[in-house]
Amino acid sequence: MADSSSDAGGLLRDPARFAREVLEPIRAIVGERGVITDRDQMQPLMVAWRDGWKGRVPLVVQPANTAELAAVVAICHRTRTPIVPQGGNTGLTGASQPHGDDSEIVISTTRMNRIRALDLDNDTITVDAGCVLASIQDAAREAGRLFPLSLGAEGSCQIGGNLSTNAGGVQAVRYGTARNLVAGLEVVLPDGRVWDGLRGLRKDNAGYDLKQIFIGAEGTLGIITGATLKLLPLPEATATAFLATGSPAQAVAWLRRAKAALGETITSCELMERACVEIARKHNSQIQDPLEQAYPWYLLLELAGQGAAEALEARLLPVFEAGLEAEELLDGVIASSAAQAAALWRIREGAPEGQRLEGSSFKHDVSVPISQVDRFIAEANTALSQRFPGIRSFAFGHLGDGNIHFNPIQAEGEPADLWQARLPEVNRIVHDIVSQLGGSITAEHGVGRLRITELQHYKSPIELEMMARLKLCFDPLNLMNPQKVLRSDLLDNLSETV
């Protein structure tokens, strides 16, 4: 692999040369609206909303279309200028966050926000990468269709970023993660060429499925500029229930029963422990406890389908009652209105914000087989309590697909800085248990900067080598989002053996 860092570093540290060879040619392509050089104006794009990363770059480029973006990337390739692709800047692992040393430029897809085509017979919608997720959901809904990807940041996150991180969300139990919802992609490659893979086909067995290489690659192999997405029938009714249970094991047992009886009407099945409810209520006065008694664990279940809501509720009720009789469930309530359903979801949505306000916490976005969820939570809590007395359990997440946000919180009344210094050891304890159970250390948030070292510890050597060879194949100069997902020293070491 050619060493891009030394060439780019010299160029970016020479303002006159940078202006002559990079800035002005780019300005000629995208116009004044497409470049930001003022530090204050670019500041919102430099700061991560979580975990405190702060970047610094000499230039932010905002192309208006794929042709402009491709021309910009071609200039960066020719001048060996590293690129950080950025969508809505809502990620949780620093994948879209530039480093703080003026060693890169940011290419933002914010201005690329057209809905290009809607094909109702084919049930697809083709969009620019900068389209905000909520706008795609709205366009689909207006056409009587559903685009089911649903995230907390859907009002500001962009579909290009969603696909680049293979976002999951609360409806993955039925519809899968982002990669399951893509029919085709358009991608600008690291040398500026454009791959047009915007095919709306349900069946295409002509060689490798190239789109899947770029989904989840976090901008390290190319920049997604457009996507053809799958649409589904718009559900006519929903039913929402908040159910109490004694343990994750009992929750899994009831979920098995529910899947057998309710099938694909289950769109979401969220697990929360009691601490999540208490801390959400503590920090948000609008959140109420829907049950009269406190219980150790809860499930938030949502069904969706055609027909009347009463029909869904009629199917859910006997499954709920059977769970009570089998002692898989202890109590519960089924929402009788949209307002009550929203109030139940507010509990789940309030857990992350309440956790943030409670002090230092250790965030883990992990997945294990659903059958191992109870064992994972129990073993991780035991190991952490033995090592760090006073640490508080705080676990919630998507039980339906085994994705648990295991985010223990510091002991009450102690300095947050003291606990934050323990993050590496906490990570190792938790991730070792995840690995032993055949899980993943990052289920839906990606690797980015946050998990880059952890990834090299838990991936097998052959898996890391395959990933690195793929990176070198597409981006031998390591210009696309360097030092994200794969460390540069791994690429350097591999390139020396080729």
TrEMBL record:
Family assignment from sequence similarity: Belongs to the FAD-binding oxidoreductase/transferase type 4 family.
Species: Bosea rubneri
Protein's recorded name: FAD-binding oxidoreductase
One Pfam assignment: FAD-oxidase_C
PANTHER family associated with the record: BLL6224 PROTEIN (PTHR43716:SF2), D-2-HYDROXYGLUTARATE DEHYDROGENASE, MITOCHONDRIAL (PTHR43716)
Annotated ranges, domain FAD-binding PCMH-type: 53-234
InterPro entries: FAD-bd_oxidored_4_C (IPR004113), FAD-bd_PCMH (IPR016166), FAD-bd_PCMH-like_sf (IPR036318), FAD-bd_PCMH_sub1 (IPR016167), FAD-bd_PCMH_sub2 (IPR016169), FAD-linked_Oxase-like_C (IPR016164), FAD-oxidored/transferase_4 (IPR051264), Oxid_FAD_bind_N (IPR006094)
Iron keyword on record: no
Keyword tags: FAD, Flavoprotein
